[in-house]
UniProtKB/TrEMBL annotation:
A Pfam cross-reference name: rve
Name this protein carries in UniProt: Integrase catalytic domain-containing protein
Matches recorded under PROSITE patterns: INTEGRASE
Biased segments, Basic and acidic residues type: 347-358
GO biological process, one term: DNA integration
Gene3D superfamilies named in the record: Ribonuclease H-like superfamily/Ribonuclease H
GO molecular function, one term: nucleic acid binding
Source organism: Limnohabitans planktonicus II-D5
Length: 358
């Protein structure tokens, strides 16, 4: 920036000489890296006064209404007093006014607290607790990790719903148990889980069941049933749907099927019939993309291995017959051996002292 009077005294005659010799003002200014507007300001009658912005800045650097040091200390003592230490300035100012006192404005109080680094939690309410991410789970076989949740099904009465209880095996994506009820209940969920364990012949200590933090999931009846069956519970963080992605994805798949009635369900029997047909389609006909496009029933029964091996042989033969049509590797038909729920992804370590090679 060319703001000093000395720079103007040196450069202005040179620019004027260049212009007198036939150069354009814009080109002459560009040679020394300044704009034509700066030249116009220099040649203005008031240009000999130098950069007036500096003088204005110095004249107004200290606001005339700024609090003195004694006033700042008095205001901070009020803010940190026993009466006001847990209140924000928006609550302190009217209380002081009721007492016939004026210390400073509300914005000044906020500014003082910012400067003192005291703009933390000052309200009389519970401090938000930090909830850690649920532990990472991995399934290497069926009946090892289940996810379950409850979703609404519309009825003909506004404000009333049927409730679809759904348990899914994350390894095979098979719906291992479901039921439609007219209420949310930990007892109903516990009865459904007990029935699933009996039908699947699950031994104690093998199964982990993940859910969100709804009241049926945290009910004493449900927890007691899981304890008796030797099931390990796992829960999502509050209001974090990503911690239970398998149930959320399954609900979307079911509710976006064309077979979903356009209107509400007439009664609970109507809803149960619809879910029965839908679960049959999902388990036995739907080829799931996350398990190499086999059905959940085939995956749960261990039939996906031979099927995928056959597909791989078909692709190998096709590539051998026409190798010019294959520019990259063939499609991946290898079975998915591990399925993860809420895996812990390590954060990349950054070392600012290390420099990249040239």
């Amino acid at each position: 920036m060319m703001n000093s009077t000395l720079q103007r005294q040196i450069l202005l005659p040179l620019i004027e000489q260049a212009i007198a010799d036939g150069a354009r003002a814009q080109q002459a200014c560009a040679q020394i890296g300044m704009s034509v507007r700066t030249l116009q300001r220099w040649v203005h009658p008031s240009g000999h006064e130098g950069d007036r912005r500096v003088s204005k800045l110095r004249a107004h650097s200290v606001p005339p209404n700024q609090l003195s040091q004694a006033e700042r200390e008095a205001a901070m003592s009020v803010l940190n007093s026993e009466e006001f230490k847990d209140l924000p300035p928006s609550q302190i100012v009217p209380r002081l006014a009721d007492q016939g006192k004026y210390v400073c404005s509300e914005s000044t109080m906020y500014r003082l607290l910012h400067c003192a680094q005291q703009m933390g939690h000052r309200r009389l309410e519970r401090v938000p607790r930090k909830v850690s991410k649920p532990r990472a789970l991995v399934a290497t076989q069926p009946d090892q990790v289940y996810c379950w949740d409850i979703t609404y099904l519309p009825t003909q009465v506004r404000g009333m719903h049927f409730y679809l209880y759904l348990f899914v095996d994350i390894f095979s994506r098979k719906i291992v148990g479901w039921q439609v009820f007219d209420c949310e209940s930990a007892q109903l969920a516990a009865d459904l889980l007990r029935d699933i364990c009996e039908r699947q012949c699950i031994p104690e200590g093998q199964l982990t069941v993940h859910s969100d933090n709804g009241s049926p999931m945290k009910g004493e009846t449900m927890l007691a049933t899981m304890w008796r069956l030797g099931i390990t519970p796992s829960r999502s963080r509050p209001s974090v749907s990503n911690d239970n992605p398998y149930s959320e994805s399954l609900f979307r798949t079911l509710k976006f099927r064309p077979q979903l009635p356009l209107g509400p369900f007439t009664d609970i029997l109507h809803a149960r019939r619809w879910v029965t047909d839908l679960v049959h389609w999902y388990n036995t006909e739907h080829r799931h993309s996350a398990i190499r496009f086999v059905t959940p029933t085939q995956r749960h029964a261990g039939l996906d291995g031979p099927m995928l091996a056959k597909r791989e042989d078909v692709y190998a033969a096709a590539r051998q017959a026409n190798p010019n049509r294959w520019s990259a590797t063939a499609r991946n038909w290898h079975p998915v051996n591990e399925v993860h729920l809420n895996p812990h992804t390590p954060k990349p370590t950054e070392n600012k002292n290390l420099r990249k090679p040239a």
